[in-house]
Amino acid sequence: DTAVSQTPKYLVTQMGNDKSIKCEQNLGHDTMYWYKQDSKKFLKIMFSYNNKELIINETVPNRFSPKSPDKAHLNLHINSLELGDSAVYFCASSPRGHNSPLHFGNGTRLTVT
Amino acid sequence: AQSVTQPDIHITVSEGASLELRCNYSYGATPYLFWYVQSPGQGLQLLLKYFSGDTLVQGIKGFEAEFKRSQSSFNLRKPSVHWSDAAEYFCAVGEETGANNLFFGTGTRLTVIP
Fold first, then answer.
1. Partner-chain contact B100 A92, CB within 8 Å
2. In this structure, how many other beta carbons lie within 10 angstroms of the beta carbon of residue A96?
3. How far apart are CA A30 and CA A35, in angstroms?
4. Most CB atoms within 10 A, among A46, A58, A105, B88?
5. Which helix (H) or strand (E) element contains residue A77?
6. Strands (DSSP E) along chain B, which ranges?
7. Is A51 in a helix, a strand, or coil?
8. Distance of CA A49 to the CA centre of its chain
9. Which residues of A touch B51 (CB under 8 A)?
């Protein structure tokens, strides 16, 4: 199936740990994103990569580091996890072009205890 | 700066009734507007988008939205709601910089009662 897939679906971990979330898209899109959805459902962009190049980097702690090994993958690594990092993280992709529609993955629910 | 307001946090409608979800945006130039739907445990799916041209746009699943520049609104409508429409609905506005950075509203949760 053509899709944006992210793993894991659920991630429970303790404060201070380092964790990664993986994302892959087989839609042939040039641009990939990470969004964070908080407990009130507010959705905010964190990063955007176009052909492995960072183009959007919103105000996000340095503990969050995206890695794009190729244009089909955009992984999110988080160091020294904090309670406030608990959220649902969505990966998305879009084709080239201004304001092209986003295709979202199903999200990774991160719980930091 | 761009912003999106969805005034209704939660709406309940009966199956078969009509639906209108409100969205107001703030943007200095011509907005790029979107409606997305999120079912429980799922990612967001695009319902429809407006860039230019006809101010009434048709989307998937029988939804439509009307762009009204004078009211800075982009309300989503459906003539007859189905139980499967129960979900969270997000309005979003895009900017002109080309960076493809969408600003989302806080969502409206739709409950459909039989």
1. no
2. 12
3. 17
4. A105
5. strand A73-78
6. 3-5, 10-14, 19-21, 24-26, 32-38, 44-50, 56-58, 64-68, 73-78, 87-94, 102-104, 108-113
7. coil
8. 11
9. 99
User: What's the average model confidence in pLDDT over A89-95?
Assistant: 93
B95 pLDDT band, cuts 50/70/90, is: confident
Q: What is the rounded distance in angstroms from the CA atom of residue A97 to the CA atom of residue A8?
A: 29
Q: How many CB atoms sit inside 10 A of residue B59's CB? A: 18
Average pLDDT rounded to a whole number, residues A8-19: 97
Best B5, B8, B36, B44 residue to mutate vs chain A (most A CBs within 10 Å) = B44
CA distance B39 to B32: 23
Q: Which residues contact A92 (CB under 8 A, 6 or more apart)?
A: A4, A32, A33, A34, A35, A102, A103, A104, A105, B43, B44
Report pLDDT digits (tens) over A34-82: 999 999 888 999 988 888 788 777 778 999 999 999 989 999 999 999 9
